Amino acid sequence: MSFNALQAKTWCFNSIGDTDVLTLEILPVALPAAGEVLIQMKTIGLNRADVMFRRGTYIQKAVFPSRLGYEGAGIVLAIGEGVRQFSPGDAVSILPTDNLAKYGTYADNLLIPETFLVHKPDSLSWEEASSIWMQYLTAWGGVIHAGGVSKGKTILITAASSSVGLAAIQIAEAAGAKVIASTQTIEKKQRLLDLG
Fold it and tell me: Which contiguous run of DSSP H or E holds residue 130?
């Protein structure tokens, strides 16, 4: 494969709106700069934050032209100078970045700083590896960082049957807290009880 001619099929948008603002573009891909990694994407995660970002209702605002997508997983094709944790051929998962417009994952090839990558656990499928990080980082931010939950504290987790709610339960329990979970339906209640 010639990296000099590498391109990426990339979903972009140039105005706020619904899915009709998305366009599939063919963009050139440069060689990785210092600290960057070039990834051939295998899977992406679809996230409510992506929809909110595209509609202009997310905490981060689009800068046009804008990319889209927080989550993904793939294979390292090339690394830039100074990258020490990853090598070509490594399987990686992408963590939510600080610039959704620039590092959107809805692409078949992606340049991204190595600070937003982790090695894909062998025990996870590509689909799992591309969709597991956002809810746990969101939950950790609320439970541990903002909430200061620790051993001996009690926490009420609303919408506990959601992906973030389930992650929050696990994180709070791991911190030694007592968890009270709330949900809206009997079916969801039973699921929470089955999970302990």
Answer: helix 126-131
